[in-house]
UniProtKB/TrEMBL annotation:
One of its GO terms (cellular component) is cytoplasm. This is GTP cyclohydrolase I. The lineage of its organism: Bacteria, Pseudomonadati, Pseudomonadota, Betaproteobacteria, Burkholderiales. It is an enzyme of class 3 (hydrolase). Pathway: Cofactor biosynthesis; 7,8-dihydroneopterin triphosphate biosynthesis; 7,8-dihydroneopterin triphosphate from GTP: step 1/1. One of its GO terms (molecular function) is GTP cyclohydrolase I activity. It comes from Cupriavidus neocaledonicus. It catalyses: GTP + H2O = 7,8-dihydroneopterin 3'-triphosphate + formate + H(+). Its EC number is 3.5.4.16. Pfam families: GTP_cyclohydroI. Residues 81-259 form the GTP cyclohydrolase I domain.
Length: 264
């Protein structure tokens, strides 16, 4: 090799090293920008507030107190962007497939404003009335149609809910439609049925302070219908009994008898 060829090779090698350094620096800057973007994302800000307050934020928890004005729109945009990445990871051509070009936007809106709205919205307003008539007879509300999603697979849960209340003279009474609104607020979150029913019971106990409270839920779970065992007939039924419904066998029997009659 003559001195001229050696000089050219040295020059090419130096150019390659410089190009590599430039590319590495650019990649590092992009990674830094990406990390900075995620650190400053609205979901990160909300999560930081929750952690600072030592507040739990499981799938079926409500976090409305920690969301500031204007952040829901930002959160929806962030979820939309990340869902677009999920679709691309599934090797779906979202740029050219007209059926999926708007899917990420639709799903983000559906999650935050509809099927998971109970996580992000404040509780519905409920007017509580004093029990002036000192009612102390069993009341049953239902069946209320309820919809949720299983927190394990995000598949639909669709079913019916019955609520039994035994008021006392100090109990608060609420409007009939409010049972449905409160149940919907609890159910519009990723849930498991056992916890959802207990949350509905806790909320009604807090609002009404009755002597007794009974809730029964019967639902179809599409994590069984749609996938896995694909059993299309199976349903799950569970109940929560509080106060006098636990202590008084005849009251519990009356509630269950009327409920079964109502089921027809």
């Amino acid at each position: 090799m003559n001195s001229k060829d050696a000089a050219h090779r040295a020059k090419d090698s130096n150019a390659g090293e410089v190009a590599g350094e430039v590319a590495g620096k650019a990649a590092g800057e992009r990674a830094g920008e990406s990390a900075g973007h995620h650190a400053a994302s609205v979901s990160a800000r909300i999560r930081a507030r929750l952690e600072a307050a030592q507040e739990r934020f499981h799938a079926n928890d409500n976090i409305a107190r920690y969301i500031e004005p204007g952040e829901m729109e930002q959160l929806q945009a962030e979820v939309q962007a990340r869902l677009q990445d999920v679709l691309r990871a599934l090797v779906i051509d979202v740029d050219n497939d007209h059926n999926t070009q708007e899917t990420a936007r639709r799903v983000a809106k559906m999650y935050l404003k509809e099927i998971f709205a109970g996580r992000y919205a404040k509780p519905p307003p409920v007017t509580e009335f004093p029990n002036i008539g000192q009612l102390n007879e069993l009341m049953i509300v239902g069946p209320l149609r309820v919809r949720s999603a299983c927190s394990h697979h995000l598949c639909p849960i669709i079913g019916k809910l019955w609520i039994g209340v035994m008021p006392n003279q100090h109990s608060n009474l609420i409007g009939l439609s409010k049972y449905a609104r409160l149940a919907e607020w609890i159910m519009c979150r990723p849930q498991i049925q056992e916890e959802a029913v207990a949350q509905v019971a806790d909320l009604l106990q807090e609002k009404m302070s009755p002597d007794g409270l009974a809730i029964v839920m019967e639902a179809e779970h599409f994590c069984m219908h749609w996938r896995g065992v694909r059993d299309t007939d199976a349903k799950m039924t569970n109940s929560v009994m509080r106060g006098s419904f636990l202590k008084d066998d005849s009251l519990r029997r009356e509630f269950l008898t009327l409920l079964n009659h109502n089921r027809g």
